[in-house]
Amino acid sequence: MTSGDRPLLSVRAEARQLVAPDYAIVDGLIEHTAQSKVEAVRSATDSLDRLTAGLAALGAVPFDEAAGRRPLTWSAYSSATREELYHDKETMRMERTGQVTATVTLRVTVRDLDRLDGLSGVLAAAPGLNVHGTTWHVDWDNPAWPRVRAAAIDAAIGKARDYAAALGATLRHVEHIADAGLLDGDTAPRHTIHGLAFAAASGREGQPGSPVLTPVPQELIATIEARFRTTDVSLPSA
After folding, report:
1. From CA 94, how far away is CA 87, in angstroms rounded?
2. Contact (Cβ atoms closer than 8 angstroms) between residue 174 and residue 227
3. CA 122 to CA 132: how far, in whole Å?
4. Cβ atoms within 10 Å, residue 95
5. Domain range annotation of the chain
6. What is the rounded CA–CA span in Å between residue 134 and residue 138?
7. Rounded to two decimals, what is the model's pTM?
8. Please, are residues 107 and 74 in contact by the beta-carbon 8 Å criterion?
């Protein structure tokens, strides 16, 4: 427990705080099946055009490097086609149906949470769109972060004082304050400071694939490690 001329106490502490989310990410997939590849791609493209027109009416812009923290952005970042297959129970093999499915993967990011109701309506009206999930997030520079980190330091000081008092000593000064895992190298658990993102359920009664866009409070967790020097400790003899 000693290092140098004074005892050294090492502790780990954390603090938590619930805050409102800064933004939501909605992930979905436009999917259309038709008799030919051309027809399937055309249907998927038409659905995407209809959806993006509805998003534009809400003030949405395409996501790119200049978008920054705009109130509402969208990105259709992947498209594909595949032959439709089915499982033949007689041959026990996958067989072609003769149809083709075209898909477009979509992501919508909303920072202006007052637009959630309008966004939900646009997504519900989009033909062929299935929403896979909605996640809620807190920015790295949210004003609550300094408070929760300060609370973690206060918790570490209180914990170290408890240990020092049990030894009949008092704290002298701080040696180190660090994110969890940094003081002891790679062998320590990686409990870094982070925010938890909770997923809201997708689907609404009578509207399959329509997201439930109700903001979910986010729990910020600051976990730190600290080392303190104490006054001398006199242990009783055996």
Report:
1. 5
2. yes
3. 16
4. 12
5. 1-22+140-233, 23-137
6. 14
7. 0.80
8. yes
| Numbers of helices and strands, H then E, in the chain | 3, 13
Q: What CATH code would you report for 23-137?
A: 3.30.70.360
To the nearest 10°, the Cα dihedral for 155, 153, 159, 6?
-170
Lowest average pLDDT, out of 17-21, 46-50, 82-86, 214-218, goes to 82-86
- d(Cα 210, Cα 125) in Å, to the nearest integer? 9
Which residues make Cβ contacts (< 8 Å) with residue 16, sequence separation at least 6? Answer: 148, 219, 220, 221, 222
122's CB contacts (< 8 A; 6+ apart) are: 51, 54, 55, 57, 58
Q: What is the CA radius of gyration of the chain?
A: 27
Strands 218-230, 199-200: pairing is unpaired
Rounded-to-integer distance, Cα 93 and Cα 60, Å = 45
CATH code of the domain made up of 1-22+140-233? 3.30.110.170
Instruction: Give the position of tokens 């903001």.
Output: 215
| Pair of tokens at residue 187 | 């062998």
Lowest mean pLDDT among 51-60, 179-188, 204-213: 204-213
CB contact at 8 A, 232 and 1: no
